[in-house]
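ok, trying the design again with the full structure, not the truncated one.
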């Protein structure tokens, strides 16, 4: 679990290059390199842009660390739904 958190942080730090948020390009790159297996449409730039705008709560055009964590939370939530759905289907 600690290494998972470490990964979350280091992925963000690398992608943001020490800036205070992920711009459009940085965010697209992060999504494509990290989430292509669990998210549909990562190669669809307009879908990724829409997602970024949805995450950008303060509207500054960048995804800051807190907003990035919301994305992780949403992905984790959809993953847990998938796995609990699988459990429910098991005998
Ligand atoms: Ca923002």
């Amino acid at each position: 679990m600690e290494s998972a958190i470490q990964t979350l942080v280091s992925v963000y730090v690398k992608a943001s290059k020490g800036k205070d948020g992920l711009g459009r390009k940085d965010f697209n790159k992060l999504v494509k390199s990290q989430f292509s297996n669990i998210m549909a449409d990562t190669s669809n730039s307009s879908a990724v842009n829409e997602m970024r705008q949805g995450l950008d709560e303060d509207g500054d055009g960048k995804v800051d660390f807190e907003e990035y964590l919301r994305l992780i939370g949403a992905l984790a939530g959809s993953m847990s739904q998938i796995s609990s759905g699988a459990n429910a289907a098991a005998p």
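Keeping the full-length input from now on. Residues 43 and 66 are 24 Å apart (CA to CA).
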